[in-house]
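Schema walk-through. Below, the input block comes first and the output block second. Nothing else is stored per chain. Lengths vary across the set, and this one has 266 residues.
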Amino acid sequence: MARFILFAKSLCFDADQQVFYPLNSPAQRVALNPLQSAVLRRVLNAQGKLVRNQALHALFQREPSELPFADRLTSTIAEINRLAQQAHAPGALVHQVPLIGCVLAEQVDVEPFSDVAATAAEAEKPVTVQPEPAVKAVAVKKKSWLWRGIVLALLLLNAVLALVARQEFAPTKHAGTQYKFYGQEAQTQIFIAEGLSANSYIVKDALRRFNELKPRLPDGAMPPLLYINLGRTRVHTSAFLCARPIAQKDNECISWMVFVQELPDA
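--- output ---
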């Protein structure tokens, strides 16, 4: 059997039977589901090193769900820690590093244990007159709190910087924002998509509707910018009313105009 002795020999995790139990009370078993057991075994085998989300994603793909992976991982780790405490663990087993992965808790000592290996070693032990001293199993050396704290702080800083970079430096120029200036109607500047001709049906029909309906922004103001898009048959949204240039992230644009008739192919 594949077992792990945890918390300085106070708790046992049986990976084959997928249960926790206190070493002094083997009958008090707390069951884990297969996904929780697989995640915990992956973290224990890492021996205190960070297990990244990419390495855990394959475990969750075995049990499809409509919930996002990040939410499932967070709830799974929380449930592992709850079940361990139900089996009288003195603290949490796994810490999660947001957006990056998870790592074994600082206070956890891990000692692999196998009944088969112990039985084989006992059978091969030579018979001697003098009793031999028992050989103490070698435990995995626990990393210091200081180093674990430094590693976790660096990982959190890396995650924060990645989020800031993603927010501040995300590209805002792509195929959907390529427009050319067409003209001005009253207080509204008009732009049309690069692929449109100034004399096309889509442009003329959009301008006709704009002049007839005089649409407004949500605050009731006249839109200073109108963007007319490319269209095909049965087009739904064909234009945008914007308070600021559409290439900006905070442009306050709203989609406008729904065609219900067939448009001629370009």
